[in-house]
Design goal:
5-stranded mixed beta barrel, OB fold (Dihydrolipoamide Acetyltransferase, E2P), two-stranded antiparallel ribbon, homohexamer, alpha+beta
């Protein structure tokens, strides 16, 4: 398998196809227009400048097009940049497609769906089970394709489902260590907690917030969806309020977007599981690009900390 | 009209009927049981101790009963207390009823309803008008009887509707000063912003939080109700999201219970109107009991400030 | 009327007179000097680069000069920039003057003065009235010309008086809704609250903080002025302390610059009125430049929020 | 098994032996001395007043003595109190000993030691293994008897080791879910993170902070102990710094007592595991005393939240 | 010299004259009135209860009267209390006067005045010298008698001048270590920084805040006084603004009451000197009552910390 | 003496030797490589661009080399930049050495050592004296050469010792004003408080954090060193814990890096002395470059404040 563009070192030459994620026009200090291209493959993204770009270039090299590039990897203000030597749009004979360039969860979505379904299948409380199954079915396509966020963690195709599957693994081990936990409530909470993202976000490519996402948010959207589903399935028991509470409180605090703090044991734990999996994902991805004896870049979503990668190596 | 119990000065004798708001048993330092009674009339409440209270007294003097009391107003740790000299339960021939002892909004609820309805009637946007009318009708009885809160401000019978009526007066003057405001959206937001309190709270007497109130909260409950109403009335326009946003963001910040901060001009203004009317109510009620040249008690919900009442007197 | 420069869209050509607000020399990556010009008309300001600028250009194109420019509006790092094609200094025959290029309150200053005076005239408390009139007279010229701030809100010629006039409108409606408010004290507080800005700031053009403004601040400067005025007018009554308190506390909290929080009802309300009018001004001006369905830029002084402009349109 | 004193309801009579945890002299309002006794059994503690207590009573009823009590459980200011009817000191023939009255971890200390040792045994990195074993041996007696804290969580005999054993269970499941974690480093961190408490605290009975505990703290004490042990064992590799860092940063933030925030993936996870096990312990113990449909008391160490216990019941 | 009441240990008998600082009436649980007396001598204050107090006792034992008391020092809720056995009002033949019972600075006020005057005399900048001398003269009587605060630090007769004298000692040593400091400005700032307290507070006995103190505060009062003095002395130089700034900013931050943070080197240092001397005073007084090997009570104004007094003893 | 490069004004020509502090390669908008050089002499540092830099230039002009430069001082984005006209590497015949270009404390290190030693000599408590002398000796070379920090204050050769010497001057004057202070403990704390920086930082040139510095920090490193030294010198008295506490708490608060707040009077004072000397150093150095009537740049480590330099001039 070829090495992704973000794994090239400064000074290396790169020659391969890349997807244009965004293309912005600017004017150079000599007065001539240029394009700032954000190019990506499955390993991540890199910036490149296309100098002396005429009006036709703006059309040729716009977002969501695929290009063949030859260039040198350079460093600019501490970040890597690709200095373009040759560039051309891809043609039909190149046999490349957008999906080849998008970062995707390391597990296929069918497997992810299976793991989630088997967990729903195990639930003993039929009220929680029916509502969970109903909502997963309703949003199934998006659930399996959406990222879990626009940035920071799991910001890749199927990121949402992948995040949920890892949280389910954590939830299972928690329930076996602490049997006083209500496993069904916790599983339902894990599966639904971020499902509102399928309304909050625009989709898996060039992901942005929708108007409903900005003004209402995935938490409140999901609380309403649960009420709706319960009404439709004619369930009027206390579990529905508990489940709504889990979704409502999973950000943990008002200043992090939850209108109520966790007031159920399972809600408190859900908040922790969400955090742990998100942070593991961020730390692993940052450390993957770091050499032993060195530090990652500062990670904004981890209180702007940098992490150290030791020289010696043990692994689980 | 008789002076309420909270307007008596230390040293004065008090003789009248009072409603028992709560009654709690304790044990005195001599080992004998006593009752701590919280007694109220329309002016507010006062604490009293009933010493040497036998088991039958616990039954006779329990919450929501009315009593005739003769006693002296004393000061205990800086707060007034009623020293009971004589006490007896009320009888049928006393012709007193609970409603006589509850603090109530200074305007009758019919008038409040009229003011709210006339405002709904004036709305030009029929989508906002229909949803608002639908929800007001659905909760009308509670809307006119509930307090706006369990403490701090408008914590009296019809407090919720009274608060809304004053906010509507403010909203009208705002819209005439700043014509760029969307009056219909603002009016709808004012009328519905706290309507979820009719589910969050238990009712107008001995008001407490319900389980739904504690775990979901009036803001999220109302957002779901608006979605429901819109579905029922088959309205699918952008205004519904805007209205949900106004309710959602009316506490202004995450740490104050709003999962989203105001992102519409009318939402920002709604937050201000809510604050101004609540604070005017708290300050007026505290200053009413304060003598010129003196300070109110510290008011917790106003950042624990105390307010000064000047000697000289101007009025609007 | 011609469209202001800030209303041009990217790609449009612009040809008109503009005022140079500031001119800064830099060195291009080819080693040649250039000028960064900030150009303004009544609609606001735009940046432009003048390449290959010799020493004589620095003299010709310095701040407070007027120029005729032909150029294209471009986008640079998400902000608009004017690419200069032709530029020349204005001449006497062009008949343009600085005042034509400064943003100014939408009401003439004579009208603003009339509204303020009529409010002073209505005051019944002669002590408050005399001090207010005295201080307004003393600073009248500056009061009518100064902006209310160097940035964020009402940062235009006559912005200070315009801000006061709108706050007076709000104050009047508040006093009619809540008659317990002391209207005279509130009016005096509104009129004087920011008058210290005439000492704090340097003037209506290229507004900056004076040394006294930086080290003492408009709040403390005005408190001293009120003491001075009271002494001169031989007024020694409690109202003077109350009025000083209103000015002192109008920022609401220590961290916002008020050494005392509001401890009078009117002081609390003054703080709200100041906030509401400042925020309405910021939101209106940002939304004016925003298309329906889109968001304003993030507004730093509004907690860095962005505001949404709905598609549908209702108006008061 | 007899029901512990803290499980008695208000109104019930209690008759059994209890350990005096503390005894404080006061003067009643009638001028006579009395003793405030804090009495405990394995279920927890309850306050009682001993009226008219002479000087000899102060000697008889002092801390760490055992007494036989007959009394009624009453409510005082919302907390339970025991009204003493009869009391006498225990005698040799009563065959009771202090250990019978101390709350103790639900697992015997031999088992706890076995679990910890088997985990040390599994470690593959011999440097980490040797230091961990060395320090556990050095403090073994205290490690198995000390509580994990003076209050809030695991504040019982063997609480420290019990807390460590549960964190090890969590650590094992984390390492199997996220194989990129360095299991040896994480296990060593879990085992040693709170071992400094054996110097910070005075012991398992009437636990208090030592002077070293107050002025240096268990975190810094342990960092020094690791340096010492490494020197003694002649280990000079990078792992020692990593292990010190895990201990140093396990409180997560400066304001929570860690001079450095986690900068290793395992340090971040250690902080989470510590939190989760402490919170599960607090929530479980509070909910155990709560009836379905009711709330726990507010728990200070959980941001003063109260937790709800639902009516319906699912369990893992 | 006799040992003050606050130096008595629990269990000791006390027999001496004391000043009644405050006297508050309450009702005992047997229904009889009693008085809570706060009694003081130069060592500090102690609470006492006078049971079965008739109306004549309220007159006899009111604030600012002196009494002869025989009683036992007891402990109540961790604080000392005096159990009265005998009490009588003082008579003329007792030859005691209020001044004997007030805590007073350890240096006579004439000496304090001399130290301050000699510092003013040393000033070389005549503008700063004249204003400082003018204001010290104007408030001289109060300056020498007032405390520096109502509680926390230097809350004794002449506390204000004593605090200033120690800050001057610190200021002198600072100026000799860092010669770049403007000594005259710093001395003037030290002398005037708290002089507004003579208006803010009611006086040296039963010290309370005045209305001006509450609503304007000593900082703003002094800024106005400096402006006034400068006008009267016809000084219009930059130093006056600098001096006002020193007073204005001496609390260091908005949330601590300064509308501007220090923006002059001398202002920054003034803030530190004020803090150091206040804290030394608090720590010394708390440690004086603490035994070696023990901790002081928690001191609220020192972030609620407690301080340790070591066993071993070194002294400067 | 020649004027340092940072004292040149914009527009001046500069011709002298400079040390290359860092050299970073970039690509210009014309596609050609260039070097960004950070050049320094004893007055501070200035940025310069070397355009069209070939591979051999990267070798010639790398960090820690000395160059002869002819250039013009220009302004770029408000900061000074040197526009290079001629540049060449220094040769042996130039007789320049690195030490000539490093900013150094204004006192030679022998003098600094003498002042510190004479203070140790004066100590009366032999335990504190021996430990202090032992640790100073152990780290003597680094102690006299290291800076006190990488930026903000005393970031120059011998900065650490210079900072300690000034803090000792402050400590002596404090002990003479407040004789209750334990001078020996305070002196020992001053001398050792930052000595851990010799492990935390990499050295006096191009100073960076070591791995131990980042993960453990100078505070914890020093606490361990004191324990070690005490063990080696066989001292087991309470003073060692006190001394560790002074080092541990000298940052004052958890969020500033101290795991314990000061709980000894001397610890509180140490924190203040550290702050005062650091701030004096920052303010003096910033004001030195500021003209009368102007402000310094905003200083991040002083809460981002700017300081004013008055026109008139008094000095101590």
């Amino acid at each position: 398998m070829k090495k992704g563009v973000t794994f090239c070192e400064v000074g290396e030459q790169f020659s391969d196809f890349l997807l244009i994620k965004s293309s912005t026009r600017g004017t150079a200090s000599n007065g001539k227009p240029f394009l700032t291209l954000m190019l990506q493959d499955q390993s991540g993204e890199i910036e490149a400048k296309l100098w002396d770009a005429g009006p036709e270039d703006e059309t040729t090299y716009k977002a969501e097009n695929i290009v063949k590039v030859l260039g040198d990897v350079q460093s600019y203000r501490g970040r890597q940049q690709l200095k373009i030597k040759k560039i051309r749009p891809s043609t039909d004979t190149d046999s490349v497609s957008i999906a080849d360039f998008l970062e995707t969860a390391p597990q296929p979505k069918e497997e992810l769906m299976d793991e989630i379904n088997s967990c729903i299948f195990e639930m003993k409380n039929s009220n929680l089970q029916r509502v969970t199954r109903h909502l997963v079915k309703k949003h199934q396509v998006a659930f399996l394709e959406y990222p879990a966020a626009t940035k920071n963690h799991h910001e890749f195709v199927s990121g949402l489902a992948y995040h949920v599957v890892y949280m389910l693994k954590l939830a299972k081990s928690m329930c076996s260590i602490y049997p006083s936990l209500d496993a069904d409530l916790l599983y339902a909470g894990v599966i639904l907690h971020d499902l509102g993202k399928t309304t909050e976000l625009s989709g898996p490519i060039s992901t942005q917030y929708t108007v409903e996402g900005n003004l209402i948010g995935h938490i409140s959207l999901m609380v309403t969806e649960i009420a709706d589903a319960a009404k439709e399935l004619d369930i009027h028991t206390e579990e529905m309020t508990m489940l709504q509470h889990l979704v409502l409180s999973h950000h943990g605090k008002g200043e992090w977007g939850s209108p109520k703090p966790p007031m159920l044991k399972e809600a408190e734990i859900l908040h922790y599981l969400d955090n742990i999996d998100a942070k593991m994902n961020m730390m692993d991805r940052a450390l993957e690009r770091t050499k032993p004896g060195d530090y990652t870049e500062r990670i904004f979503a981890l209180d702007n900390r940098k992490f150290y990668k030791p020289f010696y190596q043990n692994q689980s």
